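Milestone 3.1: sequence recovery, worked example.
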């Protein structure tokens, strides 16, 4: 492990030049304090958790100090927001501090959110508040623990600096890690502003650094797009399988790497509801839970448009047509595993669809149903879950079909089945009310609940003694929290 002053920087994106980003120094926040840090995320930088307790750590990640080798930049991009094209966005409250080259040979962007105003802040103050910073931190690390591709969060630094949103709040900064911060909207910006040289330069940057295997293909840009399509299909399949709602799937929030990116009003489903809208500002439900699949494809079509200078429209359409079948294959595989199925049958998709409709009609807790289904034999577990359903006869018919389906699986013990199912069905997820409870304590200066919740979420599949309260269904008030884009 290294000390904070021993990190190796290799600022590849900054070297692209001023057309792609603007040099901006962070604006410090007052009285910085460490709220929470992720041991696993810091390890990506060859740092151990003890480094986070050093005064220098809070000073660096609150904007007071900086490495000499860092090159903080605000990146420019555009994007489609709620379906409408916004020609100029960019990092309005975040800075790419630099790229760290670790001992494993990986490059990691250090992106500081809440670092103050930039040329892209528009009318904003460039700050992030404590609640949004905590939410992003917890979500990033929780998704990673579930096996869902995501940017990572290394720490949250709180402060006494006041900021105004709906009310007065306190500013905070969160350090986000990703192997690239290029978005769909980054390429869109240079396409729509008619800067073909810069568009090619950025596309080549992504291709050579993040998709080098595609350089060996006859059409490298097309090969790269196909991989992005597949990654996006797999990512959204995992969102859907685990009940994650992103909330703002604008193209400027879509990573070129196919990872979960730019957390705003996200939520995990409590009661299953395919029409759930987690962003109370999304009045039309564009980014509802069920719409994440078609919107994922829509966003890929927007990216394809930006790649038309390099790839024929027909070839891009053929690649785009792969999205839905790839998504369906990934989703079906995930849901089979959640149901404890190790083989495939033609009727499995119908079995899953019937279950989700029953859950929809009865408001069944999405996470706990699958966890409890694996606790005992299929017939016994189903019998205990029956009372959660309004249509008991309908559930009985489903349970009979499911029990018969399990009986056709290769023979294994119930203990093996429980182990297999518990390995993919979490007991703990980041429910909004749990996050809210931790945020309220942190706003009063008590960071212990944020840290405890983080530790619980790092092992979502493991039964953790003394943490039973984190695995309960939420209270009614906890199901109806309004989450907005405001940060």
């Amino acid at each position: 492990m290294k000390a904070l002053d021993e990190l190796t920087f290799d600022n590849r994106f900054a070297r692209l030049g001023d057309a792609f980003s603007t040099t901006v120094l962070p604006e410090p926040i007052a009285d910085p304090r460490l709220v929470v840090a992720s041991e696993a995320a810091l390890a990506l930088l060859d740092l151990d958790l003890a480094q986070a307790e050093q005064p220098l750590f809070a000073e660096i990640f609150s904007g007071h100090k900086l490495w000499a080798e860092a090159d903080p930049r605000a990146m420019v991009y555009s994007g489609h927001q709620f379906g409408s094209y916004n020609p100029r966005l960019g990092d309005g409250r975040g800075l790419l501090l630099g790229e760290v080259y670790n001992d494993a040979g990986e490059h990691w962007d250090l992106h500081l959110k809440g670092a103050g105003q930039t040329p892209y802040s528009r009318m904003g103050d460039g700050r992030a508040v404590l609640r949004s910073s905590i939410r992003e931190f917890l979500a990033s690390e929780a998704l990673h623990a579930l096996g869902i591709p995501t940017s990572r969060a290394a720490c949250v630094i709180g402060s006494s600096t006041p900021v105004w949103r709906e009310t007065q709040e306190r500013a905070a900064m969160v350090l986000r890690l990703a192997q690239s911060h290029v978005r769909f909207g980054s390429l869109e910006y240079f396409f729509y502003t008619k800067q073909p040289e810069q568009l090619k330069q950025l596309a080549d940057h992504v291709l050579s650094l993040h998709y080098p295997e595609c350089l060996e293909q006859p059409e490298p840009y097309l090969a790269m797009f196909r991989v992005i399509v597949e990654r996006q299909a797999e990512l959204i399949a995992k969102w859907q399988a685990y009940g994650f709602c992103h909330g703002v799937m604008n193209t400027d929030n879509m990573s070129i790497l196919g990872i979960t990116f730019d957390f705003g009003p996200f939520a995990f489903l409590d009661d299953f509801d395919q029409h759930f809208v987690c962003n109370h500002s999304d009045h039309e439900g564009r980014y509802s839970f069920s719409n994440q699949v078609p919107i994922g494809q829509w966003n890929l079509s927007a990216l394809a448009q930006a790649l038309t200078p390099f790839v024929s429209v027909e070839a891009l359409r053929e690649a785009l047509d792969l999205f839905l079948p790839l998504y369906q294959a990934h989703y079906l595989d995930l849901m089979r595993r959640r149901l404890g199925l190790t083989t495939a049958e033609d009727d499995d998709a119908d079995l899953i669809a019937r279950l989700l409709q029953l859950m929809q009609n009865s408001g069944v807790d999405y996470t706990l149903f699958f966890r409890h289904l694996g606790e005992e034999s299929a017939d016994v577990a189903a019998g205990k879950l029956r009372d959660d359903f309004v249509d008991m006869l309908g559930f009985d018919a489903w349970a009979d079909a499911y029990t018969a389906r399990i009986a056709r699986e290769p023979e294994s013990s119930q203990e093996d089945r429980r182990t297999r199912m518990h390995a993919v069905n979490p007991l703990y997820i980041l429910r909004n009310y749990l996050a809210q409870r931790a945020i309220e304590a942190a706003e009063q200066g008590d960071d212990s609940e944020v840290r405890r919740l983080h530790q619980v979420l790092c092992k979502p599949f493991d039964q953790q003694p003394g943490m039973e309260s984190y695995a309960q269904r939420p209270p009614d008030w906890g199901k109806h929290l309004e989450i907005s884009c405001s940060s």
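The chain has a mean pLDDT of 96. The chain is about 40% helix and 15% strand.
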